[in-house]
Amino acid sequence: MHYTADNCMAQVLRALPGFQEQWDDHLAAGHGQPAGLLLDLVDLGAYANALLERPAQHGPELRTLFDLVEAMIVGGDTLVQSAMQGGLLESVLDPMTVDSRGLSTFAALLGPRSRAYVQHCLQVTGGRLPGL
Prior knowledge:
It contains seven helices and no strands. It is mostly helical.
């Protein structure tokens, strides 16, 4: 499938029904309008971080989420790729520390393109996280 800004969030909501309540809150904060794909995916990143706090409870949903991220980076237009990387992946990576509970799960779930982007971010910032 080819992912575009027009179909990206619909695909996310179809794959991740657990995100619907947070999405509805996100839309309500914007008076019923999405904030723009990058900011929309930052919100999805916050959702991912919450799931990563309890990976044993959310393993299948996390797998679905990160499989979708990889698919959208590989099969998305330039805007979707950039938003997935700069919005979602960076918002998941940003609070990570060496002792973050979800770090090993995050590292294990990254697809090749997602991992390459995360490694690039760490290289640019000088960060080091085990497994990445």
